[in-house]
Amino acid sequence: MKNSLLIVVLLLVSVFVTNAQDPLIVSGITVPSGANGTYELIATPPGLIGPVYKHQSASYYLYYDQFGTPSEFYWNIDNNTNDDDFI
Questions:
Q1: d(CA 29, CA 10)
Q2: Strand runs labelled E in 1-80
Q3: How far is CA 60 from the centre of its chain?
Q4: Structural domains counted in the chain
Q5: Which helix or strand (DSSP H or E) is residue 19 part of?
Q6: What whole-number distance in Å separates Cα of residue 83 and Cα of residue 30?
Q7: Is residue 12 part of a domain?
Q8: Residue 30 lies in a domain
Q9: How far apart are CA 87 and CA 69, in angstroms?
């Protein structure tokens, strides 16, 4: 019985760790250079298509959204999640 319980606990821990999102590390951005760094997954705000990541220590967001025609989607780095303001 103890062995069965241990196996179930290990499987549950394994599933939790496997589904955890790793932070994204962004580098190579020259302007603004402050956008380089580590981004963590946050909840997707209403109106956006894909995941949203927030910079750990700066006011930048990395998100996947429609831009241009209805079939064009891009990854954006911005100081908010509104790509209508052209910042």
A1: 41
A2: 24-26, 37-42, 52-55, 61-66, 73-78
A3: 12
A4: 1
A5: helix 2-19
A6: 20
A7: no
A8: yes
A9: 19
Distances (CA, A) of 41 to 17, 20, 22, 25, 72: 15, 10, 8, 12, 23
Enclosing domain of residue 57: 22-87
Q: Are 43 and 61 in contact (CB under 8 A)?
A: no
- List CB contacts of 26: < 8 A, sequence separation 6 or more: 35, 36, 37, 38, 39, 62, 77
For residue 44, is it within any domain? yes
User: Is residue 11, in this structure, part of any structural domain at all?
Assistant: no
pTM flag (> 0.70): no
Sign of CA dihedral 32, 36, 38, 41: positive
Sorting pLDDT into bands at 50, 70 and 90, what band is 85?
low
pLDDT in tens, 17-29: 334 478 999 999 9
